[in-house]
Specification:
- The complex is a heterotrimer of chains A (288), B (336) and C (254).
- Chain A is 73% helix and 3% strand.
- Chain A has 288 residues and is mainly α.
- Chain A has a single domain, classed as ABC transporter involved in vitamin B12 uptake, BtuC (Orthogonal Bundle), CATH 1.10.3470.
- In chain A, helix 1 packs parallel to helix 5, helix 1 packs antiparallel against helix 10 and helix 2 packs across helix 9.
- The longest helix of chain A has 27 residues.
- By secondary structure, chain B is mainly alpha-helical.
- Chain B is 71% helix and 5% strand.
- Chain B has a two-stranded antiparallel ribbon with strand order 1-4. In chain B, strands 2-3 form a two-stranded antiparallel ribbon.
- Chain C has a single domain, classed as 3-Layer(aba) Sandwich (Rossmann fold).
- Chain C contains 10 helices and 10 strands.
- The two termini of chain C are 33 Å apart.
- Classes of the chains: A mainly alpha (288), B mainly alpha (336), C alpha/beta (254).
- Chains B and C meet through helix 8 and helix 9 of B and helix 2, helix 3 and helix 4 of C.
């Protein structure tokens, strides 16, 4: 029972942190390796706003979200736009920025265990005999709501539909007048905002540490590789598979094995079905 | 008003030395040989010049080790098209294997290092093999993840010494061996790769980087070619790992540290990608810099990343490419 | 001698909801030039991709010289002697023209056959490459074979693409719109080249839009429309056919 409930929660958490990365990749074809950095940075900014500027937490949250979206946009505008299309440089650049942000944060004071974000609703409740804190329930609600929102957004709004168009076929979309640069900028902002949102809700469960940046990146990457790059369904499915497996190992073996699970999942997927569970290995269609 | 444009023309001496029949005068010979002699002589003389303090000896060793890693990255990225964001995987696997060979099997250093190099390379190639038939981004993602995952697993499961590492690894007997092994290996790898890249095999790899569909259509099994290239790069990386382990006589989590992944990338970008020597020059700059800035801790990595990003964004050609261009070509203004 | 070198049976391929190929069947005789025509979007390139192994067909079989090659990876098929050109030619940019041919000369097939026409041991690929280019009209004495591939004009690049195929000493070449984007004079130099290849015993499948040149060269022609074969026969039969005319309304060639 514990496994069921916490497995579900874990899956939604994974889903939350991975959506941002998956979104950016499917729309802008950019693997945003700064994902983990934005995660931690947003949490830290939220902390600063709440604890140093003493703003009420909801306000701090909104501002922190804005910060993450702007950071994403900034990264795109200043750096990535210059190297669009040169895959080698794109990858190296986003990787370098991510590391730079994380290490600057570490040097700038994000050391030790003293940074914590407050939970939105303190306390816990009992579900089917298992004690669950409200924050976790909130996370599940948020994830589910976000998935629904994303679905509606990409299927019923003009911007969302143009996102899907670009994800499917960039050139055709360009011919239809959809500006792929602007779309990439927006998608990077959205992806970063999603990442920041995840940070603000998940970080209260623990501390804000720079390591979380690297871990988040690893988990997001693991989910996306297992689910298949470019497929949202894959991300959701992979989150659940990994989430439940991790919770199971946590219960049966020990919580230290979570990383092992991630590693084995990646190796397993690469051997069995390299393009991911739902990945579309678009070989020839990718080329000119 | 006169309209002028800048024109770059190969120097006369370069054109003359292009074909084999051009080695006629001492000027041509010097033109060709001098850069190489400078490099070889400089490297071999380095320990003698700075040799008095053990601290600087150590710096030279580390410098050469990172230079080898830069070769590995440059080769994969600019000659095959695979971006390796986790050279630390090679050093970690090679290093821990060497420690195990030395501690558990009691092998002497001159056996442990080659053995660890080869077995580490095989292991790493196998780990990366599944990504090779796929798009390049998968390779980048997986190379990024492996070192992070491995270090966390070692830490979490407390295997292979956990956070404390494996101390007591046998070191080099003679200081001379310690110094010159890495320098000679660096030179050997450098010239080997230079040769390889210009041989037919290297051309096929470049073809894979430019247009792999055409290479596939020309009857070549791309996955095997890429695997071979990864193996070569892994040999370089695993050597560095096992060398470092015997240098410090200790194997620990730091073998999977970001330093080993990031500094080679920064070296190559700053030094000039595509010319193998560029990465070497880049690491010769960055590593001593890193020593001088030791007080800043991991902020150094952030600084390298920022500099690296600036270089990429400005589409800079890199130091070595610039120098080579100056050496081989001259510029002049020409009337349109 | 009417030996069948390529047999395609019921090849089908769909991408999501789009049906690119629908049960296409045909066979090609050894030594003939077989044309495939059809309006844009009729599935011609998909057909080549399925036969050459770049795309896996959903249904159907392909037999080359009696052996089944359906679903094999592209490099294996090329090593059997079935090669293809690419519609958009992208030579290896950083290499001079003749070095582009090193890649196919590196393949297992050429290594097994021991070089080009028995001349030159396989290790001496540079000389062999220049030989091949000479066959295709790159004058050896000029600097053309040594120029950077990306700096060659379009006609030469197309010939380089053909050279890439020929370097594998194939038995069947599939040309994907090899006349596309060429000027009249460039086409005029390419046509005799293809005739020469046919005389040397090569089988060719040519996908084309430029019907005038194709009908001069082809022995038989097949017409594709929305992924289905609507007609097959000799060029003059195909021109007269009503279905084909309907599919092509607006083409100025007729």
């Amino acid at each position: 029972m514990y496994v069921l409930i916490y497995g579900l929660i874990n899956s939604f958490i994974l889903c939350l942190i991975s959506l941002g990365f998956a979104l950016v990749y499917s729309i802008a074809r950019l693997p945003n390796f700064a994902h983990g950095a934005i995660y931690v940075a947003t949490g830290y900014v939220g902390w600063l706003l709440f604890n140093r500027l003493l703003l009420p937490f909801p306000v701090a949250m909104v501002l922190a979200l804005l910060f993450s979206a702007l950071t994403g946009a900034f990264i795109y505008r200043i750096v990535l736009i210059k190297v669009r299309g040169m895959t080698l440089s794109e990858v190296i650049a986003s990787y370098a920025i991510g590391i730079a942000i994380l290490e600057i944060l570490r040097w700038g004071g994000l050391r030790g265990m003293t940074f914590m974000l407050p939970v939105l609703i303190p306390g816990s409740l009992e579900i089917l005999g298992v004690s669950v804190d409200y924050q976790r329930v909130l996370i599940v609600g948020l994830s589910a709501g976000l998935l629904l929102f994303l679905y509606l957004f990409t299927h019923h709004t003009k911007l969302g539909l143009s996102f899907r168009a670009i994800a499917q076929d960039e050139r055709a979309s360009l011919m239809l007048g959809i500006d792929s640069d602007k779309a990439a900028l927006l998608s990077l902002s959205m992806g970063s905002a999603l990442c920041g949102l995840a940070a603000l809700f998940v970080l209260p469960l623990g501390n804000i540490v720079v390591e979380a940046g690297y871990s988040t990146l690893i988990f997001a990457l693991a989910v996306c590789v297992v689910g298949g790059l470019g497929s949202t369904v894959g991300v959701v499915a992979a989150s659940f598979i990994l989430g439940f497996t991790q919770t199971l190992t946590e219960k049966l073996i020990s919580s230290h094995f979570q990383m092992v699970v991630a590693l084995l999942a990646i190796i397993g997927i690469l051997i069995l079905r390299p393009s991911g569970l739902f990945g579309k290995q678009k070989e020839l269609e990718e080329r000119v | 008003m006169e309209l002028l444009r800048k024109e770059r023309v190969d120097r006369g001496i370069k054109v003359r030395t292009e074909g084999i029949y051009a080695i006629s005068g001492w000027q041509e010979i010097l033109y060709l040989l001098m850069p190489r002699l400078l490099l070889i002589g400089g490297l071999l003389a380095l320990p003698l010049i700075l040799g008095s303090s053990p601290y600087w000896k150590r710096v030279i060793n580390i410098m050469c080790a990172y230079a080898i890693l830069s070769l590995s990255f440059d080769f994969l990225a600019n000659h095959v098209g695979l971006v390796n964001l986790g050279s630390a995987l090679f050093t970690g696997v090679g290093g821990y294997l060497s420690a195990i060979f030395s501690l558990k099997l009691g092998l002497p250093v001159f056996l442990a290092i080659p053995l660890a190099t080869l077995s580490g390379a095989v292991a790493c190639t196998l780990l990366l093999l599944p990504t090779l038939p796929l798009r390049g981004v998968y390779f980048a993602i997986v190379t990024l993840m492996y070192p992070l995952l491995f270090s966390r697993i070692i830490e979490a499961l407390n295997i292979l010494g956990g956070t404390n590492g494996l101390p007591g690894v046998r070191g080099f007997e003679k200081a001379l061996v310690e110094e010159y092994t890495v320098i000679l290996v660096l030179l050997a790898f450098l010239f080997f790769l230079r040769r390889l890249v210009n041989e037919d095999f290297g051309l096929v790899l470049r073809g894979i980087k430019d247009n792999d569909q055409a290479v596939k259509a020309s009857g070549i099994n791309i996955t095997w070619m890429k695997a071979f290239a990864v193996f070569i790069a892994a040999v370089l990386g695993s050597f560095v790992g096992s060398y470092v382990v015997h240098l410090y006589m200790w194997a620990g989590l730091s073998l999977f540290a970001l330093d080993f992944s990031v500094i080679p990338i920064a070296s190559v970008v700053i030094g000039g990608g595509g010319t193998l020597i560029g990465g070497v020059i880049g690491s010769f700059i960055l590593v001593p810099l890193s020593e001088v800035l030791r007080t800043f801790g991991t902020l150094r990595i952030a600084m390298y990343c920022i500099i690296l990003t600036i270089f990429i964004v400005m589409k800079s050609e890199g130091i070595m490419v610039y120098l080579q261009r100056k050496y081989h070509q001259f510029e002049r203004w020409v009337k349109i | 001698m009417e030996e069948i070198i390529l047999e395609v049976q019921n090849l089908s391929k769909h991408f999501g909801g789009l049906v690119a190929l629908n049960k296409v069947s045909f066979s090609v005789k050894k030594g003939e030039i077989f044309g495939i025509i059809g309006p844009n979007g009729s599935g011609k390139t998909t057909l080549i991709n399925c036969i050459s192994g770049f795309v896996r067909p959903d249904e159907g079989h392909v037999y080359f010289k009696g052996k089944e090659i359906t679903g094999l990876p592209p490099h294996k098929i090329a090593n059997y002697g079935l090669v293809r050109t690419f519609q958009i030619v992208r030579p290896y940019y950083s290499l001079p023209a003749y070095k582009n041919l090193i890649v196919p000369l590196f393949s297992p097939r050429v290594r097994k056959m021991g070089g080009w026409r028995g001349g030159g041991k396989y290790g001496d690929r540079d000389a062999v490459a220049v030989d091949i280019l000479e066959e295709l009209g790159f004058e050896r004495d000029s600097r053309v074979p040594y120029k950077l591939a990306s700096s060659l004009p379009a006609g030469y690049q197309k010939r380089l693409e053909l050279a890439r195929c020929l370097a594998l000493r194939p038995e069947l070449i599939m040309c994907d719109e090899i006349f596309a984007g060429l000027s009249m004079s460039e086409v005029a130099t390419l046509v005799p080249l293809i005739e020469k290849l046919k005389m040397e015993g090569l089988t060719l499948i040519m996908i084309e839009h430029r019907l005038r040149e194709l009908f001069r060269l082809a022995d038989r022609v097949m017409v594709l429309h929305f992924g289905e074969k609507i007609m097959e026969g000799e060029p003059y039969e195909v021109i007269e056919d009503e279905k084909v005319k309907k599919a092509y309304i607006g083409e100025e060639v007729f």
